[in-house]
Structures are given as C-alpha cells and as structure tokens.
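Reopening this ticket.

The earlier resolution said the output was attached, but the attachment link was broken on my side. Pasting everything inline this time so it's all in one place.
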Amino acid sequence: GESTKSLAEIHPEHLIVGIDKSAVRLKKHKRTNRANYLLLNSYCEAIWEELTARKIRVDFHYILYPNPWPKSKHLMRRVHGHPAFATLTRLGGDVELRSNWACYVEEFHLAMLMAGASGNIAVLHNITPITPFERKFDKSGHTLWQYKGKLSAD
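Inline output:
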C-alpha cells in the first residue's frame, strides 16, 4: 500500500491500482483520504488479462521489487518469463521495474526489447524510497537498479 499511495501522489490525475498477492502486506496499509488509488489482493496476471479482454490501455506500470526467483529453473515465475508477460506488453504504457538484483533487471530489459519496447537501465542514486523493500535495500547498501521503457499500445 505504501508504494501505491506514493504513486497516487506522483500521478494525482490517474487512478492508481496497487496489486499484491499478500493479504498480510495489504492489511498493514493505513488508508489515506486520497481518492485516486485502490488496493487489490490479486495476481497481476489476472488483472492484466481482464484489462486486455476489456481493451483497456494502461498509462504506467510499476513493477517494484518483485521476488526475482534467482534459480534458472524458476524462470517462468519471473515477470518476463511468465506466459502472462505477453499480456502485459499488449497493455501499452510506460514501464518501470525496480530491483536490487542487476541480472533480473537486465533479463527484463532484454525481454522488453524482444517485445518491441524501447527502454534503458540505470542505477538509482539518492532516492526517496517508495516501497518498504526499497528502503530496506537502500539502507543496507544494495545497489538499486531501474528499468524504464515504453510499450506501444498496438
């Protein structure tokens, strides 16, 4: 919920939908009076499928500190290795992925290039963390990586 609230402040003209499969994490969120966000206890894949079925385009996607599933046998659990990745690419919009694992961000970048998206990778410096994971990794001295790209809505 913390990152959703932060993104709602950054994009006050948009409805921000925070999706997390962890009901425990969502219950920790203290609701504010901001009317432009909501939290869903779901999987991104299901939401992406529903949006695609309804032909709804998305302006922004933020994929923030997902579990990178580091073992090669778990590739299909990563966002870019999952069969639903193709659904994400049909939604259009700006995409930002953040992680403390460089390999994960590099793999995502390559998958986005293969999907026809333009984008780049950067190291984040002197940031105001927008998620509890980002704050934890930043405080512990991890390098924080960011992919930013753009999907066409075709």
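Reporter confirms the inline version is readable. The beta strands are 16-20, 37-41, 60-64, 93-99, 118-124, 144-151. The mean pLDDT is 90.
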